[in-house]
Amino acid sequence: MNNNHKISIIGLGYVGLPLARLFATKFPVVGFDINESRIDELKNGKDFTLEVEEDLLQSVLKKENNLENGLFVSADLRAIEHSNIYIITVPTPVDKNNRPDLTPLYKASETVGKVLKKGDIVIYESTVYPGATEEDCVPVLEKISGLKFNEDFFAGYSPERINPGDKAHTVEKILKVTAGSTPETGRIVDDLYQSVIIAGTHLAPTIKVAEAAKVIENSQRDINIAFVNELAKIFNLMDIDTHAVLEAAGTKWNFLPFKPGLVGGHCIGVDPYYLAQKAQEYGYHPEIILAGRRLNDSMGEYVASQVVKAMIKKKIKVSEAKVLMLGITFKENCPDVRNTKIVDVVSAMQDYGIEVTIYDPWANPEEVKHEYRLDCVSSLTTTSTFDAIVLGVAHQEFLNLDLDSLKKENAVVYDVKGILKENADFKL
Q1: Torsion on CA atoms 221, 225, 226, 232, rounded to nearest 10
Q2: Which of 137, 267, 334, 376 is an active site residue?
Q3: How many CB atoms lie within 10 A of CB 188?
Q4: Quick one: which of 67, 80, 220, 387 is 20 to 30 A from 295 by CA?
Q5: Residue 30 and residue 35: Cα distance in Å, rounded?
């Protein structure tokens, strides 16, 4: 293991910051992000993503960019020019037509290309389709740097496995897949991660194998959730409790315990499109993958329709009705609102003429406004009452919420997550 590694992490979001903090315990690390307000926040030892606790972050932060172990954060390109390991951890979203958008990867590659030197290794952690690292990103590095791939510089891939909001499965406790553009590079990359990942590593034979492994992890979950979502639709027509069915089926030792719900976030709701796009370039139309995506993407409108039907059954006037949406983040006990499917439910209800109030104590109202042009409140007034309440996200705070005080007479309570034991009239 070469202990002379000087590491730069490009992108300090949900993936990059925990990784930078971890590597900083063993190496000199520069955390680079183009968002200057994010850098200012981190310099003050604060992390709005809540992925790194304040005491852990402050324990590794340093004010000077030197060769001592620790984390120096900056938005200045000059801060990363002396590194020899560059790890790119930027988002890989899809556009409005669900096509992969590699713009953040291209821009990050251009940034690294400007400071790339002979002997350097560039490692990508962003989820992509097989071939993206070597066929799409490396040419950008070559063009900007003027260096030749696998002669002057090398590439690695180690897909992120961050689970936002999960304090049990932190980055060092999740086994890491690694790969390199040459056998020697692969060993260097694997040794690098082994030095900090206590769960261990798995060295894949090629970068493409590692890319493919990552993209099918979330595609598999997406398909399984689509299956139980379809079951929920079927059992709802039969007036059968889906959760009771899954609980009974779950008594078999090899039954997979997936639950119905809204599939959003930066991984499960996005990654299958990356694999599908690449498959179509090879002339293959992926039927199961895209069918799962279509079904899961339809669930927001389905939930809204079920709420409206429940209101009609209770003779509640739908137009101009007031509905409380509990939660807008993509998952429970986490401030991440990226690709949240709650907005699909809200949009569909607004199409019915419903006035929706969104309450989420975890979400940043400014971020919600910027991303979705929706208003979100962080607290509720005791005088507000609603014709329907929809529990969309299973935040811990909602379990202790006095729903009766928020309901108008005969109001509907719809539980998307299936966590309300007694107060829900209907659940997904």
Answers
A1: 170
A2: 267
A3: 20
A4: 387
A5: 15
